[in-house]
Write a structure and sequence with these properties.
With about 325 residues, this protein is α+β, with helices and mostly antiparallel strands. Among the domains are: about 90 residues; about 120 residues, 2-Layer Sandwich (Tetrahydropterin Synthase, Chain A). A five-stranded antiparallel sheet has the order 6-5-9-2-13. A hairpin with a 2-residue loop joins strand 11 and strand 12. The chain is rod-shaped, with a radius of gyration of 40 Å.
């Protein structure tokens, strides 16, 4: 008799084997005598009869449906199980936890930008959080036609309007199109509020929205990197020193040696070599006994052969033709 009884009874539960599900409808529509209801943490169980909500059970645990559930159902308080027939009712499990989902633009968004007639194509991606805010509205709008509803369905719904929202919030307050990451928090907050209003029409709230990154075309990235590098260098002297270090690291191969940076590197290296030679000569002369005058400078105070400031040949002049240094 016990085996026969167990065949008639059933267990009403949701094991959440699939992640990201917002609600799940128990697949059977008839509850047998002796059946048990199991509610796990983060779940609500909702009993529905003829499309109407009859009872909501929020506390996790195990319940005997006949003695602990039916007495609390609005239209089924006096229901009695028959020997071969059960109670025809729907049970919907609601996920009450906050769920995280990633989002990304399907296509590049063309943002108006000076000098670009078609606009500048930008992509973006990030995350959003959602949670059931009104299960009655959600069940009324969705449960009649769907067995389950997930964050993937939410993502599909919000992606349809996300491009327009991004364009709208990026275009506000005259933001710099090339530095959107600086305003990412403000843009995300505005989008979150609008998406939340839209999704509450189906009982789901958007509790968080973040923009992790804006992606520009590769050409724009290269221009930004070049501008940042030039800004960091500040003047041509430092630029030539950095270029020289670059050249020494990479070698002299390729066509890059013919460009302006390569010429500047060559000039700078020549000047540095001349300066070094002059310094070496002066040091050697300074060590001669008797305090003799340096080579190339007569007793009458003749100009040195190389400028002591920049290393440029003096050709007997009294002032350096390159830097203006007084020589005599």
């Amino acid at each position: 008799m016990g085996v026969f009884f167990n065949q008639l009874s059933n267990v009403v539960e949701w094991d959440e084997s699939r992640e990201g599900v917002i609600f799940w409808k128990w697949p059977n529509d008839e509850i047998k005598k002796g059946s048990k209801l199991f509610i796990r943490p983060g779940q609500d169980a909702i009993f529905m009869y003829n499309g109407k909500i009859e009872g909501v059970f929020e506390d996790d645990g195990s319940y005997d449906i006949e003695t602990q559930i039916i007495p609390f159902l609005s239209s089924l308080k006096g229901f009695k199980f028959g020997f071969n027939s059960g109670m025809r009712a729907e049970v919907v499990f609601i996920n009450t936890k906050e769920l995280l989902c990633k989002w990304g633009t399907k296509n590049a968004i063309n943002l108006p930008a000076p000098g670009l007639p078609g606009g500048m194509p930008v992509r973006a991606f990030g995350t959003f959080n959602c949670k059931v805010m009104d299960f009655a509205v959600m069940l009324e709008k969705l449960s009649g036609t769907m067995q389950t509803y997930s964050v993937e369905d939410v993502r599909t719904r919000i992606t349809a309007s996300l491009d327009q929202l991004l364009m709208s919030w990026i275009g506000k307050e005259g933001r710099d199109m090339f530095n959107l990451q600086m305003d990412a928090r403000k843009i995300a907050k505005g989008i979150e509020e609008e998406l939340d209003m839209e999704m509450r029409s189906i009982g789901v709230g958007i509790t968080g929205f973040t923009i992790e990154s804006f992606n520009y075309p590769e050409e724009i990235k290269k221009m930004q990197e070049k501008a940042a590098a030039q800004s960091m260098v500040g003047d041509m002297n430092k630029y030539s020193q950095i270029a020289m270090a670059n050249s020494m690291e990479k070698g002299n191969g390729g066509s890059g040696g013919a460009n302006l940076a390569g010429q500047m590197v060559g000039m700078q290296m020549g000047m540095m070599m001349g300066q070094q030679m002059l310094n070496n000569t002066n040091m050697a002369q300074g060590m001669n006994p008797g305090g003799q005058a340096p080579a190339g400078q007569g007793a009458g105070g003749a100009a040195p052969k190389f400028c002591p400031n920049c290393g440029t040949p003096t050709n007997g002049a009294n002032f350096c033709g390159n830097c203006g240094q007084k020589l005599v």
